[in-house]
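CORE FACILITY INTAKE
Project code: CF-77B
Contact: R.S. (postdoc)
Sample description: multi-component assembly, two entities in total
Requested service: structural model of the whole complex
Turnaround: standard
Below are the sequence entries exactly as provided by the requester. Do not edit them.
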Amino acid sequence: MKKLQVLLLIGIMLLTGGCWDRTEISDLGLIVATGADLVKEDGEDKVWMTLQMANPVAMVPGGGGGGAGAPRAFWTVSGMGRSVRTASIAVAERIPKRLFWGQNRVFIVGEEAARRNIIPFLDRPLRGHSTRRNTYLVVARGTAKKVLEVEMPTFRASGLALNNILELEGGTEAIMPVTLNDFAYRLGSKVTAPVAPVVSVVPQTSLTVEDIKVPGGPSPTIDISGIAVFNPEGRLLDFLNKEETLGLMLVLNKSKEREITVACPVKGPQEPVIMHLVRSNSRTVVHMDEKGIPSIEVKIRTICDLWEHFGSHPGMTGIPYVQSLEKRVNTHIEKEIKMVVSRAQELNTDIFGFGEEVRRQHRDEWLQLGNHWSEIFPGLEVTVSAETSLRHRGLTIEAPGARKEHLL
Amino acid sequence: MEPGRISNRQLAFLMATVLLATVIYFMPQVAARAVQQDSWITALLSTVWAILVVLTIIALSRRFPGLTLIEYLPLILGKPLGKLLGLFYVFWFLGVGAFVLRQFAMLLNIAVMPATPVAVFMVTMMVLVVYALRGGLEVWTRVNEILLPIIIVALLMIMVLPYESMDFRRLLPVASHPAGVLMVSSLIGASWRGEIFMAAMFIPALTSSRHTSRNLMLMVLIVGLILAAMEVATVAVFGGVNAGELELPIFSLARMISLAKIFDRLEVLIVFTWVLGNFIKICVFMYCSTVGAAQVMGFKKFDFLFFPIAVLMVAFGDNFLENVADFTDFLTHVWGAYGLLSFELVIPFILLLITLIRKPEVKRDTR
């Protein structure tokens, strides 16, 4: 009996010791970024999926590396189908690996697909249990395929580069990362218009050693700038430029770090002073007048440091310059926000979530206002009040040689 | 009948695991679909119902010390009717236990191992449960004392760690739904919380009856707070509308965790709570149906029923509610009536009323 038990135990140990469903990492097609486009084929709309995959074999130090014929670290494949899923599984017939979605960081939607309606493209990435809701969503100017096919000399996979820009520099200047979850939230709200950052392919501005060797000239690179504005039904309406994006980010509290260029208190605009935003905090207050017409007040408090005075005249000493600069920053911020507000009102899309703020702050009135929000929003009165405090001016006081006094 | 003895704390812990193990599956989805950002309020309101359940059950148990629910049913209603209702209760334990088992298997299927047949999860879980039950009541309640803290820590981590994706303004406006709607949707949540009435099967096994009702009410309250915090976290991350669109909101919540690129993919925490919590929960349902069945039939022992009832439970689990849409439909439209409004609160309450009016002769347990 004892012997039988021991034998049984050994048998179980043999069966359970391994990993039944194991997959070698080199057998996986590790998808790092996906792009979805809408194309016409034989008069029928088709989804064109582009998958950027990592090749783990080439990433082993010493295994890959330079030299012609060495395996590439990343490659791009695309397939076509009636839906996102059918188009992405279509590539399986052409690659010797199993598709693995767990590492997908960026989902790019082409302009044409976004203009038609983005919602069908988002179902699969949100439903699938190997993709994540905190994947970044990006809209491509032109096609997503083109973006993923960019070969960057310094950073071989454009999808990964995109991820790094959004992750490391999100909140810097006009880079506003949006995840699938954020986007889905805005779609679900039915009033707040969804937005997503825009990526475009631009020529490289500085050449690397590898580029000089290539006869075709500088290779293209990717650039994130601006915001794609959708309507609440999920159709792409237009793109915001950099200044408008900066304004939007201030209202949405997404600005973490940016520069604000104002005129020098002494010499005016030809000697710009660069203020560095350290912190900003915005609050949206909804006022109701007696007739039940809402108006919005955006209150912004920012803290800035003086980072650069691009000039040769003194003027940074003394207390008056502080107040003068603060006032200039306030005006700049107010102008910036007014600009993006009037642009959004022109497009009639509530990208700021003002409607939701009305609902939060005046729920009873919202029951009536909610149904007519698209009629109210274009005429909504929006006031901005900015309050800036200048904190410090770095390690020097004036530009070198700016002081006029002679040495004694 | 039950030779084992457990302490008051052990019973409270046991019930806490029972309540926590399954509410975190579909409950947030059902609640958020009904009342969006106010789902956390229904979680708190459910507590009121569950406290009523505890009070009823304790009042009944006080009148019939040393007897389980199934044993005092014939004393209240007379033998034929009492036995019949007892049988219904046994089928309730069996049916809901099978439901829990199937749900557990299905969730592992949806979330972690899509290619494995549900029967594999159900049979392996049942083997484990029968093994634990054969060890005796004292053994698996003590196991639960180890498992419950793990479950609670995992749940706390799930609701705190996705803080980067949270926006608490998504919870506003608070209580924008009419009180009636909130009350009705709280009934569904209360049906889960009302499962605490199963304590009536364990009270005779307690070493002392001091603080039993206080402990159980405290557990109901704590579970209510944990669940409300869960709902708050879910709504803050996904928004009220989208939380109702998620099949498993808490699982999706765990998937949102991404801390400093190191703490990533922590959905394994959820699998912890599922496997550990459901193990104990199915133990409780199995125990109740076996002991209940033995008491209805008048058997002196119940150990020999483990195997047939385990087989029945797997068979039930495998055959009813085939897909996930059936599940959510059942939970939204049937569960409230099947749980709280009949077996958990209303029937015990009527029994209590009958005892108060008729004052049946209490037979002292002499064993």
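Facility notes:
- The longest strand of chain A covers residues 268-288.
- The interface with chain B takes residues 102, 129, 132-134, 179, 181, 184-185, 188-190, 359-360, 363 of chain A (CB under 8 Å).
Invoice: internal transfer
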